[in-house]
Design brief:
Strand content: 15-25%
Radius of gyration: 28 Å
Number of helices: 8
Number of strands: 15
C-alpha cells in the first residue's frame, strides 16, 4: 500500500486492511473488489508517492476530508495557493520530502516522541530528519530585523501561515450519532447538504461540514493526552477525547492551530465512561451489530463484553471533542495572517488563550490609566511649552 505504483492494490473495507483473494462485492457500497496482480504490484515497488500516502491519509475516518481538515484529496494535485510546498506550480514536494524515513521510522511524528523536542536545523546538519518548519527555515525565518522573528519561541509557524484549512474540499466538523437509525419507508437513507456531502446518514446520524475554516489555537509541545473507555467522565461537560499537552511556561510549547471536531457519542450512564459499540455485522446472522438492527443497547453490550469491559446496561449520548493539529495547506507568504488577526481587542484569534498579556488584545486597567496619564501629560507639557515660546517671542518683539 505504501510502495506499489500500479494503483490496483485495494483494501477490502471489511478485510482488516487486507485485499481480497477472489472477486468480492462489498454490500456497503456495491463496489466489486478484485484481487491484486501480485507480480505487477511487487515489480512496481518504489519510493512512496503522494498517491500512496494520500490513499489512506486523505480519506481517514470514512471519507474524503472527514478527519484532518488539512489533508484531503485536493492535495493530490494542489497549486501553490493551496500549499506552497506541495503545489505543482511551486515546490511540488512529495510527502517524503518532509516526512523523511530511516528504517521505516517516519519523521513528522506527533504523539509518542514529540517532533518539537528535536528542533535540529538542516542548515546545521543536512542529514537531520525533517520534522518541523525550523528544520528547513531555522528559528529566524524572517528578515534579520523583523519583529516576527521574536515570535518563533512561542508561536508555531503554522499559526500564521495556515490562516484557514479545508480551503478546497469541506471537512467534517460535527457528527451526531444520537440521531442515527432513522429510516424512510422502512429503509436506511442518506441526505446531502449544500456542500455536496452527507448531512444525514441512517447508519451514522447527522453531520456538519465546513469549508475555509479558521483554526482554534492551543499551547502544544507535540504530545497529546487521550481519554480511554476506562476513564471516568463528567457527562455535564463536553468530553475531550484528546487534549494538546503544553503551556506558556513550557519551553517546548508553541501556540499551534487545530481543527476541533465535535460529536455526540454513546456513554454508560451508570459507570460514567465512554463505550464501544459493535457497528459492522460479522455475518448475516449477527444481530448484535448496530448496522444490522439499529439497536444501540445490544451493539454496546456485545462490544463491551468482547473487550472485557463492564457495561451497566444504560446508555445515553454525550457531547465530545477531538482535536487534530493543522500543519498542511501552508499558504503563500503574502496570505499569512496580519498582526491584527491576533493583536486585536474585538476579534482576536487567540481570545481563548489566557494567562499572559498580549498587546492590543488585552487591557490592564491600571496600566491603561497610567499610560493615558503619561500621554495626556506629555501632550499638555508640549502644548504649554509651545504656548510659552509663542508668548515669550511676542513679549521680546514689543520690547524691541
Amino acid at each position: 500500500m505504501c510502495h506499489e505504483q500500479t494503483g490496483t492494490y485495494k483494501k477490502f473495507p471489511a478485510g482488516a486492511g487486507h485485499p481480497v483473494s477472489e472477486p468480492k462485492v462489498f454490500p456497503g457500497n456495491g463496489k466489486k473488489y478484485l484481487p491484486p496482480d501480485w507480480n505487477a504490484v511487487a515489480q512496481s515497488v518504489s519510493r512512496p508517492s503522494r498517491y500512496n500516502c494520500g490513499t489512506c491519509h486523505f480519506f481517514g475516518g470514512g471519507g474524503d476530508g472527514v478527519k484532518h481538515g488539512d489533508l484531503d484529496s485536493s492535495l493530490f494535485k494542489p497549486n501553490k495557493q493551496l500549499d506552497v510546498h506541495m503545489g505543482q506550480d511551486g515546490q511540488d514536494f512529495s510527502c517524503t520530502r518532509c516526512h523523511s524515513t530511516t528504517r521505516h521510522k517516519i519523521a513528522g511524528r506527533v504523539y509518542t516522541t514529540p517532533a518539537a523536542e528535536h528542533r535540529r536545523s538542516l542548515v546545521e546538519d543536512d542529514l537531520a530528519e525533517k520534522i518541523t518548519c525550523e528544520s528547513c527555515h531555522t528559528s529566524r525565518p524572517h528578515r534579520q530585523a523583523g519583529k516576527m522573528n521574536d515570535h518563533t519561541d512561542k508561536v508555531a509557524c503554522q499559526s500564521c501561515h495556515i490562516p484557514r484549512y479545508a480551503r478546497v474540499n469541506p471537512t467534517k466538523m460535527f457528527w451526531d450519532w444520537s440521531t442515527a437509525g432513522r429510516k424512510k419507508d422502512g429503509q436506511p437513507y442518506v441526505e446531502k447538504g449544500s456542500l455536496g456531502k452527507p448531512s444525514y446518514d441512517t447508519k451514522k446520524g447527522n453531520f456538519v461540514w465546513q469549508k475555509n475554516v479558521v483554526p482554534e489555537y492551543f499551547w502544544f509541545n507535540g504530545s497529546m493526552e487521550h481519554l480511554t473507555v476506562m476513564n471516568t467522565i463528567d457527562p455535564a461537560q463536553t468530553v475531550a477525547l484528546n487534549r494538546p499537552v503544553g503551556s506558556r511556561n513550557d519551553p517546548r510549547s508553541r501556540i499551534f492551530p487545530f481543527k476541533v471536531h465535535m460529536a455526540k457519542q454513546p456513554y454508560d450512564k451508570i459507570n460514567k465512561n465512554m463505550v464501544i459499540p459493535h457497528l459492522f455485522p460479522k455475518s448475516k446472522d449477527d444481530r448484535a451489530a448496530y448496522w444490522k438492527t439499529y439497536e444501540w443497547d445490544s451493539a454496546i453490550a456485545f462490544a463491551m463484553e468482547y473487550a472485557g469491559l463492564d457495561y451497566s446496561g444504560e446508555y445515553d449520548f454525550v457531547e465530545t471533542s477531538y482535536v487534530f493539529p493543522i500543519t498542511h495547506m501552508v499558504a503563500p507568504k503574502e496570505n499569512a495572517l496580519a498582526c491584527t488577526e491576533c493583536h486585536s481587542r474585538s476579534n482576536s484569534r487567540l481570545a481563548n488563550l489566557a494567562g499572559f498579556y498580549m498587546p492590543a488584545r488585552d487591557c490592564v486597567g491600571v496600566v491603561e490609566t497610567l499610560g493615558w496619564i503619561l500621554v495626556l501629560g506629555s501632550l499638555a507639557g508640549v502644548l504649554l511649552h509651545g504656548f510659552g515660546r509663542v508668548f515669550s517671542r511676542r513679549g521680546r518683539g514689543k520690547e524691541a
